[in-house]
Specification:
Layout lengths: L3 H11 L3 E5 L8 E6 L2 E6 L5 E12 L13 E11 L6 H15 L6 E5 L9 H7 L2 E2 L3 H12 L13 E5 L1
Parallel strand pairs: 5-6
Antiparallel strand pairs: 1-2, 2-3, 3-4, 4-5, 6-8, 7-8
Length: about 170
């Protein structure tokens, strides 16, 4: 367990807005997430390494066909601009999404989370499939069919076009 004095030290040294404690991940010890200016950084308490990062913030969207179909007026949502897990298959992405869910409520977005999924690295795993498994969906029927096809094959792979931009929202 990380001591309060350690957290206070990080608060002061890094000049962060807040420190969020997260439980142990699959093979990693307890982690700490520091938030400063919409940048969430997930660190290992064992060796201080950066495990993942997320840039996310509340925004107001006008009625929008890409997110929450049928919405008649503008609404607040927590927008994930970037999510990077430096270590794959250890629950880091899932932890950051869970933080976004909590922050969405804290920031007055009522659990609404939006993002645009695309692959910006050389990963062979489709980020759209990961977000779908985390409860996100899209109004783009063609992209949704491809996400389901990849998921059903139990063989994570990239979209036929890796640069595909898929607006997604939490169901």
């Amino acid at each position: 367990m990380v001591s309060r004095s350690t957290i206070n030290f990080f608060n002061k040294a890094l000049g962060v807005d807040s420190v969020l404690r997260t439980k142990s991940l699959k093979t990693l010890p307890e982690t700490l997430t520091f938030c400063k200016n919409s940048h969430y950084n997930l660190f290992s308490t064992k060796d201080g390494s950066l495990l993942g990062e997320m840039i996310a913030y509340p925004i107001t969207l006008e009625k929008n066909a890409f997110y929450y179909p049928g919405t008649k007026k503008s609404f607040n949502c927590f927008y994930i601009d970037e999510l990077i897990a430096n270590v794959k298959k250890h629950g880091i992405g899932r932890t950051l999404i869970n933080i976004a869910k909590k922050e969405s409520y804290k920031k007055g977005c009522n659990g609404r989370i939006n993002l645009v999924a695309t692959c910006i690295d050389d990963s062979k795993i489709s980020p759209q499939t990961f977000y779908y498994k985390m409860g996100f969906t899209t109004t783009n029927k063609k992209h949704l069919q491809e996400i389901i096809r990849i998921k059903d094959n139990q063989n994570p792979q990239m979209f036929s076009n890796p640069e595909t931009l898929t607006p997604m929202y939490l169901k």
